[in-house]
Amino acid sequence: MPPPRWGDAPLWYARCMAKTIVQKIWDQHVVSQDEGAPAILAIDLHLIHEVTSPQAFTGLRTRGLKVRRPDKTVATADHSIPTTPRNLPIADEMAATQVKQLETNCNEFGIPLHGWESPNQGIVHVIGPELGLTQPGATIVCGDSHTATHGAFGALAFGIGTSEVEMVLATQCLLQRTPKTYLVRVDGKLQKGVSAKDIILALIARIGVGGGTGHVFEYAGEAIRALSMEERMTICNMSIEGGARAGLVAPDETTFAYLKGRPHAPQGAAWDEAVARWKQLPSDPGATYDKEIVIDANTLEPMVTYGTNPGMGLPISGSVPDPATESDPASARALTRALEYMDLTAGQSILNQPVNTVFIGSCTNGRISDLRIAAAVLKGKHVASGVRVMVVPGSADVKRQAEREGLDTIFRDAGADWREAGCSMCIAMNGDQLAPGEYAISTSNRNFEGRQGKGGRTFLASPLTAAATALNGRITDPRTLA
Q1: Whole-model pTM?
Q2: Residues 6+ apart with CB under 8 A from 372
Q3: Which one of 12, 18, 346, 429 is at 20 to 30 Å from 408 when CA atoms are compared?
Q4: Is 62 exposed, middle or buried (0-12, 13-18, 19+ CB in 10 A)?
Q5: What helix, strand, coil percent values describe the chain, rounded to 5?
Q6: Residue pLDDT, tens place only, 260-272
Q7: How far apart are CA 120 and CA 362, in angstroms?
Q8: Do β-strands 303-305 and 313-315 pair in parallel, antiparallel, or remain unpaired?
């Protein structure tokens, strides 16, 4: 920023002092940092699950270390746990071993576990907010790439690797380099049939899977403020798919209303004190960002991916792009490979593409509001002949709530399969997967080759689009439903 002219100094200095929410949280958690080196960052909440934690605990045992703050560590079984009835044993031997080892590790090191029989079991990024563990201004890590979900509450939350899981278990700190900031402002209002999932898919289609590399997205604007907490979680969840380290939304009254009264949220006078602190977190007027982008919500359509990464997405009224129009040879080769894998033709409409399976669930869209949307579409109707529809709640609590509301009956009557809570087909676990060559429309977050089963082909979309597609067995624009 250039030096001020005479008379402009107060404004200039105010802008120099202004901070983004990311900078505020970062500064509050830096324990130590040498110039040019990563910072030692204090971690408020460490979430763990059965897949990325076993080696970390082995490392602790090898080095004779304890868990530094078991009170700030919470575990759940979600990735490897089957979504079939819980009175049945886990058929997959590796999955069973992982779940059992998590129980052993948590018992030995004194870590609270929401496991196989817990009423609070569920996908780690669903139960954290449900229990009030996820709070504004916190630093939150997990050995899972979609930890940015928790940023919906104004937290700095990101995924870490197994060696970093061990570091946090041992020290409650982490080495991290200061991220850059990226303002994503979504102006206007979403039209009927367009949802939070469509916002994030539109962003990633626009900037690409590497557009946010090295940055933390801050989502702002009229359209973001109008979203519920669960919708904000959907958007933050997929920040990593745009290359960002994390993504967040500044806390507001919607945030506070969601958190109030939850089991781990502050109570009484402590609640009032916490809210007063949280209200100081939003970015200051005049704060500057390393990058900015503006999206007009009024113009957005339902989005669907067509390729093999989440950046290969297009409006549902669009056509599959032609590799010949790509100016970059590497991009042209990648697109050619993706279309070959998906068995799609350049120029074809994405509408009416047949699907074999519909998956409604995951840490992106497995919350109660997602299930309500899908149930509203399917109520009184039946899924297309030959189409398998799997509905997997994101947590045991979501499952109970859905059953209290009768959503499970709506799904079953429509011909859908109602499951137990877990990651399920999002990562093709315990037989919840596609066969080679099968197509799925999925509310999950990744469409990589083989992500939902070896040789399986995935279209990512919102719960609304997925449910509409289930009725016709072909990709369907939800705006056309009566």
Answers
A1: 0.95
A2: 405, 407
A3: 429
A4: exposed
A5: 40, 15, 45
A6: 999 999 999 999 9
A7: 16
A8: antiparallel
